[in-house]
From TrEMBL:
UniProt keyword annotation of Cell wall biogenesis/degradation present: yes
Active site, renumbered: 129, 141
Protein name as annotated: L,D-peptidoglycan transpeptidase YkuD (ErfK/YbiS/YcfS/YnhG family)
PROSITE patterns noted in UniProt: LD_TPASE
Pfam family, one: YkuD
Record key words, sorted: Cell shape, Cell wall biogenesis/degradation, Peptidoglycan synthesis, Transferase
Length: 166
């Protein structure tokens, strides 16, 4: 496979993009081709960056196409619901993640197209976001230091490919 310099390629050294390697954390369940909701795995595949959210009360928009995270913004992780694996607003009684968190993990969120059709049980909320600390795994996302995430968010295009291989 031929990669574009604008591709985000997950390697053992981190994420390779635009001539840089960004150290990152992946899911506690490792990298899996058979991703399921709640398994903590980062899914194998070629995923497109389809959106970006940011906290306007904490930092400026990294790109003109970034959307602000507002109070009441949620992400549905309720398998079987019509809104599964999509942005929803409170009140939303089904299972969900809060996008406007007290901690900084979701101050910038790059959304991938993983399971964008919402196939029940196939996993949700595969994002690129800030990590807790080096070496701390995610629930399936790819996570970076704050400076690296800000650099990435400022320098990638919507539609960029995130390539995850075993």
């Amino acid at each position: 496979m031929i990669h574009s310099p604008a591709d985000l390629v997950l390697t053992r050294r981190g994420l390779r993009v635009l001539g840089r390697h960004l150290p990152c954390s992946i899911g506690r369940g490792g990298i899996r081709a058979d991703k399921r909701e709640g398994d903590g795995a980062t899914p194998v595949g070629e995923h497109r960056i389809t959106g970006m959210f940011y906290r306007p009360d904490r930092l400026p928009a990294p790109q003109p196409w970034a959307e602000p995270i507002l109070p009441g913004d949620l992400w549905s992780d309720a398998s079987g619901e019509a809104a599964y694996n999509s942005h929803v607003r409170a009140p939303y009684p089904a299972s969900h993640e809060v996008l406007r968190r007290a901690d900084p993990l979701y101050d910038i969120v790059l959304v991938t197209d993983w399971n964008e059709r919402g196939a029940p049980g196939a996993g949700s909320a595969i994002f690129l976001h800030q990590r807790r600390r080096a070496g701390f795994p995610t629930e399936g996302c790819v996570a970076f230091s704050r400076p690296d995430l800000i650099w990435l968010a400022r320098n990638i295009a919507r539609g960029a490919r995130l390539i995850v291989r075993r």
